[in-house]
Design brief:
This protein is mostly helical. The chain has one domain (2-319). The protein is 70% helix and 5% strand. It has helices spanning 5-16, 20-26, 29-44, 51-81, 86-94, 100-116, 118-125, 138-185, 197-206, 208-221, 230-240, 250-260, 289-319, and strands at 264-270, 273-280. A two-stranded antiparallel ribbon has the order 1-2.
Length: 320
């Protein structure tokens, strides 16, 4: 039954998510990672050090994080696999590292809020993006939500699932540790440029296959979503993804934009500084709340495709 850990984790997390009461009681594993990452950064990333030493410090901090994550998750996995029905416990332990339910809920809140007013939409989207919300018009709020939905489908769902399938519980835990480190220190500002270099590069590496797999899954999902184009999805992904500064983020964003006839990307403001990003897709850019709902429909179909693929893979493995 261990081969069914991944599909069962997808089903349970999509249905239940991570219980709010559990968050209040013991916190969330990502928050635990964040505390360790923050503590290491405070201790190791000293401003008086030169660039080379700060980069070395970042490598050391990342190595400590990964050793802790691997050792704990490996010990836990070996322990639960020795229990009667231990695979059930393993399924439950894997679910916090997936984000299907929470991602859909958060983006859905932006659509609901934007339907009411621009101010409400800006407030809702500020919880899921880092760009300056006060600089966003209605189309900007919608684009921000859709871009986040597309990219997070990859690094919040497909990538954790991929590493769970490949390496079991340690795989999904290590992936989430790397991804959390990148989100916290993998920035290009003066404080993190050198210290976060290793985290950013390793995150690019572990997301390389999942990002492209996500574009494929979105393309397949178009066959079951009305008015979504699989040919446009794949064409946009291949054409526009290489334009993105990230080696991975452009694949799901371009695929979703092409599938739905949207144009996303372009300039946006972070802490008052305008950043010019490439355009993904060739469709309309004047997006509204209903377009977010269309993206959510494609997102849910993509999750269905992933689940079917996960079940099929598990069944194949049982016959080997």
């Amino acid at each position: 039954m261990s081969v069914f850990v991944a599909p069962l984790a997808l089903v349970i997390e999509r249905w239940l998510g991570y219980p709010e009461q559990l968050t209040k009681t013991i916190g969330h594993p990502v928050v635990w990672f964040g505390s360790l990452i923050d503590g290491l950064e405070r201790r190791l990333n000293r401003p008086e050090r030169d660039s080379r030493h700060r980069r070395d410090a970042g490598i050391i901090g990342l190595a400590i994080l990964l050793v802790v994550a691997f050792v704990l998750s490996f010990i836990v996995q070996q322990f639960v696999r020795g229990l009667p029905l231990g695979w059930v416990v393993e399924v439950l332990l894997a679910t916090p590292f997936l984000a299907q339910k929470e991602l859909g809920r958060a983006v859905g809140k932006v659509a609901d809020a934007l339907s009411g007013s621009l101010a409400a939409g800006r407030e809702a989207v500020s919880h899921i993006v880092g760009r300056d919300p006060d600089e966003l018009d209605e189309a900007g709020v919608a684009r921000a939500a859709i871009e986040t939905l597309a990219e997070s489908t990859s690094d919040g769902v497909v990538a954790p699932w991929f590493w769970l399938v490949l390496l079991g519980l340690p795989g999904i835990v290590l992936y989430k540790a790397i991804n959390t480190a990148d989100s916290m220190v993998g920035h290009l500002d003066a404080r993190y440029r050198d210290y976060g270099w290793a985290s950013a590069r390793l995150d690019d590496l572990v997301n390389w296959v999942p990002a492209r797999l996500t574009a494929v899954l979105i393309t397949i999902a178009c066959f079951i979503v009305p008015h979504a184009s699989p040919s446009h999805a794949w064409t946009a992904a291949r054409r526009d993804a290489p334009k993105h500064a990230s080696p991975n983020a452009g694949w799901p964003e371009a695929a979703m934009a092409g599938a739905l006839g949207f144009r996303v990307g372009g300039p946006r403001s972070y802490s008052g500084e305008v950043v010019h990003l490439p355009v993904m897709g060739e469709g309309k850019s004047a997006l509204v709340a209903s377009d977010i709902l269309r993206a959510l429909q494609l997102y849910r179909a993509t999750l269905n495709v992933l689940l079917v693929m996960s079940i099929a893979l598990a069944l194949m493995l049982t016959t080997l």
